Amino acid sequence: MQEGTHNWDWEIGPKPVHSFAALKSVFAYRHLHSALVRKEFLLNYQQTILGPLWIFFQPLLTLIVYVLVFGKMIGIPIGKSIPPVLFYFSGIILWNFFSDTFWGISNTFRDHIHLYSKVYFPRIIIPLSVLSTNFLRLMVQLVMLVILIVYFIVFKNFTIHSGFNLLALPFVFIGVAMLTMGGGLIAAILTARYRDILNLLSIVIRLLMFVTPVLYPLASVNDSLKWIVLINPLTPLFELFRFSLLGEGTVHTGAMVYTFSLGLFVLVVSFFLFNARSAKLIDIS
User: What is the C-alpha separation between 36 and 58, in angstroms, rounded?
Assistant: First the structure.
């Protein structure tokens, strides 16, 4: 065989860093992605009493606490037209999707180093599987939310003053996914080298919840403090989510442009960084 020639048809190895070639290989590993999603889903609920029913019970238990503490005891104003159960539940399921996905992606190298160090596959597959697993959980909980909405419409005379706002739901999911994926990949890079950053991120995520319209609507925020909430790119997405499902929320075109522009920028930058640094971070982890 002459020098420089090859006698194989398919070479398995990392793709160039400064291109989207790595994304093309994701399709070739789609079966691995499906297997990882199945494994993540089953792993979360095996050896538990309720099993997959925790998908329903976990947000319901959180809902009860929110309604009693923030609705009854503290009395946070959420408006009069939306029942507190629907208001809080919509915020809970979308926040859980963001929080769970962010933490799962942030711990990519710590939780999956045994796979990364033994066999090559596109490293982005595991973060994508975490995103897909939590998105499936969100869809199941969204069905439960729709059932609650129908119940309040039929038996509690709840009226949704909206048109075809359900068409906005895909934009909500895409926006949250971009921000979560981008932020999670950057966090994964940092935590693989500096484990104590996980403690800092835990504090940041807890504080982020209070500047995100999970427990309150944007309209109830004092005008002098509203800019703090609007800096948060998640704010327009939570407002749009409630507007699309419940017919009430503060949605501005400028805020949506800001959110999607930032989300796309963070996602692209984090992808290149993750693709460039993953091989070195595996040796460190």
Answer: 23
Query: Using an 8 Å Cβ cutoff, are 245 and 145 in contact?
Result: yes
Distance (Å, rounded) from C-alpha 164 to C-alpha 73?
35
Kindly state the tokens that stand for 251: 């949605």
Hey, what's the torsion of the CAs at 242, 248, 251, 256, to 10 degrees?
A: 10
Instruction: Choose among 192, 279, 191, 175: nearest CA to 236.
Output: 175
CB crowding 14-48: b at 16 or more within 10 Å, else e:
eeeeeeeebeebeeebeebbeebbeebbeebeeee
From CA 103, how far away is CA 53, in angstroms rounded?
A: 22
| pLDDT at residue number 18 | 47
Q: DSSP letter at 47?
A: T
pTM equals: 0.86
pLDDT at 224: 87
Q: Locate tokens 């009226």: which residue?
A: 159
Question: Where are the chain's structural domains?
Answer: 21-284
> Has residue 1 got a pLDDT over 60?
no
pLDDT given at position 45: 66
Among 247, 225, 252, 221, residue whose Cα is nearest residue 236: 252
SS in 3 state form for 224-241?
CCHHHHHHCCCHHHHHHH
Residue 8 phi/psi, 5° resolution? Answer: -120, 160
Residue 159's Cα: distance from chain center in Å? 29
